Amino acid sequence: MKRFLPWPIRLPVATLLLGLLVLLGLLLRLWGINWAGQSWAEPQTAGFIANQAGWHQAFPLLAGLLHVPAAWVWGVITHLLGPAGQPGPALSASLWACLVAACLGAVNIWALYRLCLAALSSRGAALVAAALLAVSPWAVAQGHLGAGGSAACLAMTFALWAGIKFYQQRHLTDYFWAGLAWGLALFTAPQAWLLLPGLLLTHILANWQRDQAWWRWLLAQPGAFGAGAALGLVPAILLRWLAGPLGSPLPTAPSLSGQLAGWLRFVGPALGWELVLLFAAGLGLAVWRRQQDLWPLAAFVLLVLAAAVLAGGVFGGEGQAALLPALLCVALFAPLW
Predict the structure, then answer these.
(1) Other beta carbons less than 10 A from residue 224's beta carbon
(2) Which of 120, 157, 245, 284 has the most CB atoms in a 10 Å sphere around its CB?
(3) What is the separation, in whole angstroms, between the first and last Cα of the chain?
(4) SS3 (DSSP) at 88
(5) Which residue, among 178, 194, 189, has the nearest Cα to 152 in the 3D structure?
(6) What integer pLDDT is reported at residue 226 of this predicted model?
(7) What is the pLDDT of residues 38-82, one digit of tens each?
């Protein structure tokens, strides 16, 4: 495997560049927010918060639960800094949702760097992936709108990163953290169900032709994963209990042709066909070169794409955000060869 960039990148330089990319991504996401507190997403976001819709809409529900204390702190700060005797501007539901989404999007830049570094062992490739996510128009727009795409993308990045870690080290603690990350990802986006086949493939590859006790790979490691997943689902259970009666979590699915056309429209302007072609090339090289770290990531992308076409409206913006981290990792494997 060759260097992604023509010069070596040492750890202090990579840390500095990563910090600048995170700051750039945060500024881009904050810059596009309507600070007046009203946006086209206001009815959608406020409606989710007020009606406390399905458990799969965890981001607006969690943002809604935190909105009251955040609005109180916001009011105190604006009162202290504003003109005497005049109340400061209120922290609306849509503005708060956009602020949370922007911060989650910035954190995801760092998380994607860690995922690509673990999967590709290249600081250059990891920095390029972080840069692409930092300036991606579609990813930046998720922070502007206050929708669930930023949270779904971050949750899937952590889950994929944890899966790579237990493939490489096979410690019980790594299985536990992978289960915890998967539970939180499922709490954020239902597409996390499709990560299970990839994690199962990772578990098989991690233990294939390796001499260890049968009870460890058959009982102990899956048990640690299950314990972490149960703990990760606790917030979903608590929020479901706090939310009270829930509506139907699944919208009406459009026709197969309509869903396929929608995904083609997304792939073109949002991701870019060059990234899709790089993913296809990276997938072929990963199979040919037996880069097994990338197999679960590629399997997850293919499963999400297939399910998005077959299952229809179950996969919206969160589904598109969920596949972006794995797609970037596999795509950037191609330039390394």
Answers:
(1) 21
(2) 157
(3) 6
(4) coil
(5) 189
(6) 93
(7) 444 444 444 444 344 433 455 566 677 788 888 888 888 887 877
Helix (H) or strand (E) holding 30: helix 11-31
Q: Are 307 and 259 in contact (CB under 8 A)?
A: no
Provide the token pair at 203: 């578990």
CB 309 within 8 A of CB 263: yes
Where does residue 222 rank: exposed (0-12), middle (13-18), buried (19+ CB within 10 A)?
Answer: middle
Tokens of 289: 């070169």
Q: In a 3-state reduction of DSSP, which class is residue 145?
A: helix
Max avg pLDDT among 3-12, 80-89, 178-187: 178-187
CB count within 10 Å of CB 168 equals 15
250-259 contact pairs (CB < 8 A, 24+) = 250/313, 250/314, 251/313, 251/314, 252/312, 252/313, 253/311, 253/312, 253/313, 253/314, 254/312, 254/313, 255/312, 256/309, 256/310, 256/312, 259/308, 259/309, 259/312, 259/313
More confident residue, 176 or 233: 176
- Angle of helix 172-188 relative to helix 234-243, nearest 10 degrees, comes to 30
> Which residue shows structure tokens 């056309």?
261
| For range 117-133, the mean pLDDT | 92
pLDDT digits (tens, 9 = 90+) for 286-305: 999 888 889 889 988 888 77
pLDDT at 176: 93
User: Could you give the percent of the chain with pLDDT greater than 90?
Assistant: 22
Full DSSP string of 201-234: HHHHHHHTT----HHIIIIIHHHHHHHHHHHHTH
The span from the CA of 41 to the CA of 79, in Å, is 27
Taking only Cα atoms into account, the Rg of the chain, rounded to an integer number of angstroms, comes to 21
CA dihedral over 308, 314, 316, 318, signed as positive or negative: negative
Q: CA of 9: how far to CAs of 107, 118, 122, 127, in Å? A: 22, 16, 9, 10
Return d(Cα 308, Cα 306) in angstroms, integer.
Answer: 5
Cβ pair 107, 150 in contact under 8 A = no
Kindly give, in sequence order, each residue whose CB lies less than 8 Å from that of residue 187, ignoring residues fewer than 6 positions away. 55, 58, 155, 232, 233, 235, 236
Q: How many Cα neighbours within 13 Å face the side chain of 148? A: 31
